[in-house]
């Protein structure tokens, strides 16, 4: 098992560089929004953008991208915003993320139950 | 033995290309109660760790002279994953239950299906804050009592319900967070509860 290390590299400068100094993340990306690459990395692309495109050849949740890249979720949201704006990725947003208090419908929960029982 | 030590892939396991809906369940509880153990026992991937950087206005935060009213806090959390079918993927988040992490909760709980409060009977005090916040957020939850081997005094679920001042409608379940079948049972208890709530609500529409 790989030893667990803090994700934060302890280097705020690195995070600043990665995001070009931006700190406002695109809040539309939920932790479990699934990201899919729509194109291969292009030469000269920022390395973090390129890594996300390689990673998301198959669907990957935002939170998994953050863990894989070793970057805070907020930083990943900013990077994903860039890629979405340029058409390099598509995002499959969760259905149930609209509000906290609203319950998902019973049909969806039935599917979840079925999936869990089959584990 | 069907336990958390079962082999999980060390390499990244991609989701199916048909995956389209991510779902969330949060596991909350005090330090050392077994949140990550529970996540690991049911997850199809080795639990991953990531962090969220929260920038917040300095409400209720110590404001020292010359420091701007904004503070940045970093908090780490674990998560695992269960592919439910071709389209649906369930993510399990282990979140620390202490009061100072309330801002992480707001983020994690947004759009979550429901929560599991994992309780250690030797440290039940750790659970009160979590239960209070869940009720405040109107997030449906169940209470799972993690039975440790050295839990000499076995309190009954009724005794624990009383100690936590837990309403009758909140389901409780015993578990051994290390055992996959037990972890799965906890999740099924929660989703059954959610299903009952949804069915009751739909009947009134």
Automatic annotation (TrEMBL), chain B:
The keyword Ribosomal protein does not apply. Transmembrane segments: none annotated. Keywords: GTP-binding, Hydrolase, Nucleotide-binding, Receptor. Pfam families: ATP_bind_1. CDD domains: Ras_like_GTPase (cd00882). InterPro entries: Gliding_Motility_GTPase, Gpn, P-loop_NTPase. It comes from the Bacteria. Belongs to the GPN-loop GTPase family. This is Signal recognition particle receptor subunit beta. It comes from Streptomyces thermodiastaticus.
């Amino acid at each position: 098992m790989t030893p667990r290390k803090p994700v934060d590299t302890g280097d705020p400068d690195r995070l600043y560089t990665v995001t070009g100094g931006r700190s406002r993340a695109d809040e539309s990306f939920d932790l479990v929004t699934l990201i899919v690459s729509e194109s291969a990395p292009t030469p000269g692309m920022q390395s973090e953008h390129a890594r996300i495109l390689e990673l998301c050849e198959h669907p990957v949740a935002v939170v998994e991208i953050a863990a894989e890249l070793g970057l805070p979720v907020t930083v990943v949201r900013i990077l994903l915003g860039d890629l979405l704006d340029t058409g390099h990725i598509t995002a499959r947003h969760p259905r149930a993320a609209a509000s906290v208090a609203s319950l998902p419908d019973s049909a969806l929960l039935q599917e979840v139950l079925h999936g869990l029982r089959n584990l | 033995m069907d336990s958390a030590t079962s082999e999980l892939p060390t390499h990244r396991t991609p989701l199916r290309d048909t995956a389209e809906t991510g779902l969330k369940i949060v596991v909350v509880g005090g330090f050392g109660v077994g949140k990550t153990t529970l996540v690991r026992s049911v997850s199809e991937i080795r639990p991953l760790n990531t962090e969220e950087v929260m920038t917040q206005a300095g409400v209720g935060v110590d404001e020292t002279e010359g420091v701007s009213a904004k503070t940045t806090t970093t908090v780490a959390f674990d998560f695992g994953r269960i592919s439910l079918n071709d389209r649906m993927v369930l993510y399990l988040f282990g979140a620390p239950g202490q009061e100072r992490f309330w801002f992480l909760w707001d983020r994690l709980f947004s759009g979550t299906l429901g929560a599991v409060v994992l309780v250690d009977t030797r440290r039940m005090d750790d659970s009160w804050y979590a239960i209070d916040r869940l009720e405040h957020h109107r997030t449906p939850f169940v209470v799972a009592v993690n039975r440790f081997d050295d839990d000499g005094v076995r309190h009954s679920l009724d005794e624990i319900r009383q100690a936590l001042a837990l309403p009758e409608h909140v389901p409780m379940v015993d578990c051994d967070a290390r055992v996959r079948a037990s972890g799965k049972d906890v999740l099924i208890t929660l989703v059954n509860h959610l299903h009952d709530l949804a069915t009751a609500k739909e009947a009134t529409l």
